[in-house]
Amino acid sequence: MTQGNPARQPGLVRTFLQRTLPFSELPADSLRRLAEVCTVEFVPEGTALPHSAQRPEALRVVQQGAVRLTVAQEDGSPALQDTRGEGDIIGAAALLGRSTASVHATTLEDTFFIRIPGKTFLGLASEFPAVERYFMRTLPEEYLTRAFDEMRLRCEGASGSGGLYLFSGLAGDLVHRPPETVVRGTTLQQAAYRMMKSGTGSLLVCEAAPPHGEPDAADMHLHAAVRTAALGGSPAAGPVIGIVTDKDLRNAVALGMGHEAPAETVMSAPVAAVDETCTCFDALLEMMRRQIHHLAVLRAGRVVGVITAHDIMVVQGRTPFSLFREIMQQRDLRSLHPLGPRVAHVVRAVVEEGARAAAAVRMITVFNDLFLEKVLTLLQAETGPPPAKFSWMLLGSEGRREQTFATDQDNALVLEDCPDDIIARAAQVYFDAFCTRAVAELEACGFARCAGGIMASEPGMRLSVSGWQRRFIRWIHTPEPQELLKSSIFFDFRHGHGHAPLVRHLRESVAAAAQADQVFLRHLAADALRDRPPLSFFRNLVVEKSGDHRNMLDIKRRGMLPFVNIARLMALAHGIDETSTPDRLTALEQEGHMPAQLCREAREGYEFLMHVRLVHQLGQIRRGEPAGNHISPAELTGLEKRTLKEVFAVTERLQAFTRQRFKLDVS
């Protein structure tokens, strides 16, 4: 075949397009007809193709070879914009009328194209909207969804029909009866009798009805974070003020309370609630996070029923709540140790049932926080109360709530400032023993020690509020590159256990200092540009060439870390308190500090990388191997590899935005 003599090879074309997005998603008959009108075109090295300022006569798909894309700079010299290799497409933006610059394409080597007539392509885009949407943005949602589905199906033991109920079923679907209510002043005996007669395990406690039989409108709306349920529309009861469960009544009897005591003396308030459109999975996580067994369900802000953890367990069959309950029931530290490894099996089940990484990681965070609280609570019961207030501070991926199965301990201790020397010395002795034991117990539960020594058991990781303030101020005002690299995970800190105001006060002072220091932010920005996305000049995935991880890709360092670093940088620059990467990106988008499209793609891309990492680690655990972060691209499907490349292209755009935002002239 020579240049200018394209040949029709429908069999070859159909086979190639069957594995090339977006054409692989066409119906078989449409793909066959498309292949019949396409030609295979040979273009020698160094040949210029029609540029995007003109509407090309055809769409070209690289079948073999490579193409360089350049744009003209102000001085007329060409600047490299991109390179395209096998499966990449040339000319779509121009054909669809979306070209914004004069992009010149030149073959870097002898190249074969599959040439699709322009009218044929435009007809496909009109007939199949998914084809046009593919070219509207770099990271199309429908293809991300397909890639997620492929990874779920690759998990061994994928659930059969009905296994997705935890994620498709809604809290409102579990409500089969209106809530049982009593008014303030109802005695414990009357409440117990009401539960027995109605066959329920909970009662909502309400104020007496307003004079006109309707609750005040101000009581009908719920706070977004801690919701106090309000029951309206009934002349018998006013706003809900609390909930009494059968467990509360048992505790009252055990404590010897009189049966004439009012129910509100043992009720829990405010009432935790979720909207009826909340998934069963999110309802379950809310119960686990709050360590409760009952949730009010709301419709238009009004309680329509109460659901329990048992309700979810019955419809789901297998549930994380059983492990959660087992952890809660332990009364000594040794009994906690064998429960840690079981978290991976529970999370594997929810991934098989359709959970994406964001949901799975939230569940891991709930379990990890529960282990921490249980370990420190039981340890304090053994050692006695501390001589000073403290906060167990979580750093790095723990602080970001983004742990998977290959993350070690990153923690520290914040102590209240003690002006009394005797109390300060007593606190030093107490917390030296307490933290050493706590780190060891967490390790026994499956949380590996930090190889870099960033743990509360190290003396340098136990400081007062003012001590931590001085350390952060030193990092901010004198940012040495190597020390800044080591200290960056400290800026993801959050409260884990103890006295939360200590960390809140520390965060306020650190946030103000970081936002005001532009030199520090520029150093962080330079660090965020240090690791380039693992794409070669020809847009192939870059893997390690030697060593134990030869032909593998470090999905954490090369893939996820640039997203983490840029989200942290931008959050500090704009005084955003969020610590998780997706939450930071959402806040940046909502406050208008970054382009909305870039934030959306960054969130979706980051979740995809996290899901690849999570599925890889679950496979290692299933095979009895230690969980790690190096993946082999050879084990991924074509769609997964293509999606990885698109995600890394998002990384390039994030870094370009960062370079421009902080005016960094780095290559």
UniProtKB/TrEMBL annotation:
Single GO MF annotation: [protein-PII] uridylyltransferase activity
Any coiled-coil regions, as ranges: none
Highest taxon of the lineage: Bacteria
InterPro entries named among the record's database cross-references: CBS_dom, CBS_dom_sf, CBS_domain-containing, cNMP-bd_dom, cNMP-bd_dom_sf, DUF294_put_nucleoTrafse_sb-bd, GlnD_Uridyltrans_N, RmlC-like_jellyroll
Domain Cyclic nucleotide-binding residue range list: 22-142
Entry keywords, A to Z: CBS domain, Repeat, Transferase
Domain CBS positions: 267-323
Keyword Transferase annotated: yes
PANTHER family in UniProt: CBS DOMAIN-CONTAINING PROTEIN CBSX2, CHLOROPLASTIC (PTHR48108), CBS DOMAIN-CONTAINING PROTEIN YHCV (PTHR48108:SF34)
Protein name: Putative CBS domain and cyclic nucleotide-regulated nucleotidyltransferase
Organism of origin: Oleidesulfovibrio alaskensis (strain ATCC BAA-1058 / DSM 17464 / G20)
